[in-house]
């Protein structure tokens, strides 16, 4: 009997707490697509990335050319010359690898560039979402774009346009 009463009390408490919470969704892909600064930053990142990738590819191509030349000349070279050519090839490959890490590594130039360009935009969006959640009493705001487990959500709880309005990008 005590278990049944406890279960009913627990159920009542949980249902009361669930009713008190309000939820909202925001579609970050939609929001970001409607912010011109984000699109410009993305384009800058793509251009820089392509330029840096071309530099890395050029060094890799130099290493490849050195290797092919070495293969065709290997029969005519002395052991010392072979060792020198092999060292040159390894050094060029290492240089290409280091440049790739410098530009594209976890703490590389692309990461830093992305942080400097995207960070302020993301902070602005976060602050807008937080302000809306505080003013409308939302306990939780999910990102519709990354919330794979949401099968259906009412459009009434989507605050994406509210966020864009708060940021000054829509009517």
Topology:
Elements: H1 2-20, E1 23-26, H2 28-33, H3 36-73, H4 79-104, H5 109-136, E2 140-143, H6 160-167
Parallel strand pairs: 1-2
Keywords:
171 residues; mainly alpha; two-stranded parallel sheet; 5% strand
Percent range for helical residues?
over 70%
How many strand segments?
Answer: 2
Global morphology: rod-shaped
Q: What structural category arises from helix and sheet content? A: mainly alpha
Instruction: Please tell me the total number of domains.
Output: 1
Terminal Cα span: 59 Å
| Strand order in the largest sheet | 1-2
Would you write up a description of this structure?
The protein is mainly alpha-helical. 73% of the residues lie in helices and 5% in strands. It has helices spanning 2-20, 28-33, 36-73, 79-104, 109-136, 160-167; strands at 23-26, 140-143. The model is unreliable at 2-9 (pLDDT under 50).
In short:
The chain has about 170 residues and is mainly alpha-helical. The protein has six helices and two strands; from the N terminus they run H-E-H-H-H-H-E-H. It is rod-shaped.
């Amino acid at each position: 009997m005590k278990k049944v009463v406890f279960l009913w009390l627990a159920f009542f408490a949980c249902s009361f707490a669930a009713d008190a919470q309000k939820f909202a969704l925001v579609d970050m892909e939609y929001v970001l697509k409607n912010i011109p600064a984000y699109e410009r930053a993305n384009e800058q990142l793509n251009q820089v990335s392509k330029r840096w990738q071309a530099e890395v590819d050029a060094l890799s191509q130099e290493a490849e050319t050195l290797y092919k030349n070495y293969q065709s000349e290997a029969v005519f070279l002395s052991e010392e010359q072979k060792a020198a050519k092999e060292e040159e090839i390894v050094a060029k490959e290492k240089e290409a690898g280091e440049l790739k890490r410098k530009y594209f590594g976890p703490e590389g130039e692309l990461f830093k560039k992305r942080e400097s360009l995207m960070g302020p935009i993301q902070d602005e969006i976060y602050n807008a979402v937080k302000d809306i959640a505080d003013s409308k009493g939302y306990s939780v705001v999910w990102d519709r774009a990354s919330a794979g487990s949401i099968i259906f959500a009412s459009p009434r709880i989507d605050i994406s346009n509210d966020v864009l309005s708060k940021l000054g990008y829509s009517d």
